[in-house]
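Support request, please re-run this one:
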Amino acid sequence: MDLLKAEYLDKLGPLLSAEAAAEAPGAGVDAADLEQAVWVRLLESGRRAPDPAEPAEPARWLRRAVRAEARLARRRARREVPYDHRRAAGDGHRRPSADGGPPAGTAGTAAGAAPEDALMHGEENRALRSAVARLPGRCPELMKALLSPRDLTYREIAGELGISQGSLGPVRSRCLGCLRRMLAAEVAAPGLRGKER
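Re-run finished. Output below.
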């Protein structure tokens, strides 16, 4: 008996919603996202119930699938690093101001930041610009256009560089991969953590 039949979908929908709502807060995801991941898992697996006489089997599979997707979401959340992780770690104790702006005592620009932060930010920018300049082919031109403060559209960049708009994505992808490899080779590996024996 196919689990994708309408009778099962109608029967399992409320159960899935309840299970996803129960697991979502612990996983740190939205219940609707968890629910959608389980439906996708069901569609990808093409799941068939082994015994149509046992009604508990689809519900058991559904509960296991929700828990498995919640575990995956927790693992994914542990591996993800916030974009501005240095500032998040440094300003973790500060509260936002009453008007909803940046935390009290902080400035929105690098000019108001600590001198060390401004120096590190400047060095990171110089290293990035240097690496972009060493990229092969059209990559330096493309990366400079993409990072331009003018915030150009793909159409404007394509016109400026004289290449088709459809090739910008693949070229950008190759350039970013090259830049990633180049920077990874230059960055020192992090030191060992924990106790040394």
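The radius of gyration is 25 Å. Residues 49-53, 91-111 have pLDDT under 50 and may be disordered.
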